[in-house]
Design a protein that fits this description.
The protein has 18 helices and eleven strands. Helix content is 46%, strand content 13%. The C terminus is likely disordered. Helix 10 crosses helix 12. The protein folds into two domains: 141 residues, DNAb Helicase, Chain A; 293 residues, P-loop containing nucleotide triphosphate hydrolases (Rossmann fold).
């Protein structure tokens, strides 16, 4: 027999029949589907409808809404309701009975999932893969863990206040004195206070602006300062920096790693791809690779992931290695459910952003999701992006806690080069000198702080963003050799 307790179900229903206030003690986590005996679930659902409507729920009012010819354990409806009321537990015990009913329902659900896993493993469809089965099992297990939990709901102001003070204390002890994860860009951190847990941060820009470069820089900066502390229960807790998960739906893991090596050594990735390096360059690359090989930066290069697949992999990473920041590059390459896809791309993107925000709250980590901008930017004289330029869905703006735009005037000006030797070309050269290496991160939206523009320096050769006062990496060149 599947685990169940008819006595607990009947005791709870009896308590509610005698005192309707008992219902409010279990309504947050208990549902009619949690009852093993179907008629008990039906009675619980009826009780809830009556009580929520402000009506009295008892044996008299419930009777007309149950089948007259129904027989339960050989009893008529009248007799069964009378028996429930006669054997009622007290309202004090109602919550404990409700928890037992819920706990046994969870055990039955786990048995069901286990059976499905076994059956699928024995007789899997041709098109199915083991990874699909694993991700589906993880999703279903997570749904059981999160649905109907009875440790949520209202909390006292004292509890919330304690958490706020603890957050401030952690910020005081952390490098940079920030409440969130430090991006490594001081001017940006001073505006944002770091990347805040449970926030969905949208990083948007037109192609060529450096979205992926900025996301990679931030991910590396957070991972390189990671420091953990082993707790008494064996759990490794992050003290500084963070463990980073990077979903690269566009670039391969090798390309991302090459970008980081290029950024750290100052050797342009284009030269590395062509093999245009000498022995000194190779030694520098080797030394830096050894130094950073153990960074807590994990890359998933699978293309076309759905939100459910991404969520399953992120939860697995958090369980196995820990997780403090999630990066998704980029939003428009993800897939929504087939139902939303049929309704149109706008609805599909809406579903994706809504689920990413929910995932950020569930995992309690910031999620940085990159996004493309619409072409209407190109038709304006001022190419600086606005919230209305977010591509395909207003829900991106609605669901995001922070919206950042990457903008480089140099990119647009370089495409307007006049014919050499003309007065216009001389004027163009002066303008190029004025914007060379300059970038802006425009904070278009921020729930917790101010909007505005943060100036940055961008080295296009090594795809590196930096604060304006620290434009260059340290010079690794040997004596007598010009720095790169």
């Amino acid at each position: 027999m599947l685990p169940h307790s008819i006595e607990a179900e009947q005791g709870l229903l009896g308590a509610i029949l005698i005192n309707n206030e008992a219902f409010y003690r279990v309504q947050d986590f208990l549902d009619d589907k949690h009852f093993f005996e179907p008629i008990n679930g039906q009675i619980f659902e009826l009780l809830g409808r009556f009580i929520r409507a402000g009506k009295t729920a008892n044996t008299v009012t419930l009777k007309p809404y149950l089948p007259v010819d129904l027989k339960i354990e050989g009893l008529s409806v009248d007799q069964y309701l009378a028996r429930l009321a006669a054997e009622a537990t007290t309202i004090i015990n109602a919550e404990d009975y409700g928890r037992l009913v819920y706990y046994l329902a969870v055990r039955r659900a786990l048995i069901g999932i286990g059976g499905d896993i076994v059956n699928l493993a024995y007789d899997a469809p041709i098109e199915a893969t083991p990874s699909t089965h694993i991700e589906d099992a993880e999703r279903r297990l997570y749904e059981i863990a999160e649905t109907g939990r009875y440790d949520r709901g209202f909390q006292t102001f004292e509890t919330a206040l304690t958490k706020a003070v603890d957050l401030t204390a952690a910020a005081f002890q952390r490098d940079g004195k920030l409440s969130g994860l430090a991006t490594g860009l001081k001017d940006l951190d001073s505006k944002l206070g770091g990347l805040q847990a449970s926030d969905l941060v949208i990083l948007a820009g037109r192609p060529g602006m450096g979205k992926t470069a900025l996301a990679t820089n931030i991910a590396y900066n957070i991972a390189k300062v990671w420091d953990g502390e082993r707790r008494a229960d064996g759990h490794l807790e992050t003290v500084n920096g963070g463990v980073v998960g990077f979903f690269s739906l566009e670039m391969s893991a090798e390309q991302l790693a090459a970008r980081i090596i290029s950024e750290q050594t100052g050797i342009p990735s284009s030269r590395m791809r062509r093999g245009d390096i000498d022995e000194f360059d190779f030694e520098k690359i080797r030394e830096r690779a050894i130094e950073i090989q153990n960074l807590p930066l994990f890359i998933d290069e699978t293309g076309g992931l759905s939100v459910a697949q991404l969520a399953a992999r992120a939860r697995r990473l958090k369980r196995q290695r820990g997780l403090d920041l999630l990066v998704v590059d980029y939003l428009q390459l993800m897939q929504g459910s087939s139902r939303r896809a049929q309704e149109g791309r706008v609805q599909e993107i809406t579903e994706i952003t809504t689920n990413l925000k929910a995932l950020a709250k569930d995992l309690n980590v910031p999620i940085v999701a990159l996004s493309q901008l619409s072409r209407q930017v190109e038709s304006r004289d001022d190419k600086r992006p606005q919230l209305s330029d977010l591509r395909e869905s207003g829900s991106i703006e609605q669901d995001a806690d922070v919206v950042l735009f990457v903008f480089r005037e140099e990119y647009y000006l370089a495409n307007k080069e006049p014919r050499p030797g003309t007065p216009e070309h001389e004027k163009w050269q002066l303008e190029m000198e004025g914007v060379h290496g300059k970038a802006e991160v425009i904070i278009g939206k921020q729930r917790h702080g101010p909007t505005g523009t943060v100036p940055l320096h961008f080295d296009a050769q090594v795809t590196r963003f930096a604060d304006p006062e620290t434009k260059r990496l340290p010079d690794y060149s040997p004596p007598g050799r010009l720095p790169i």
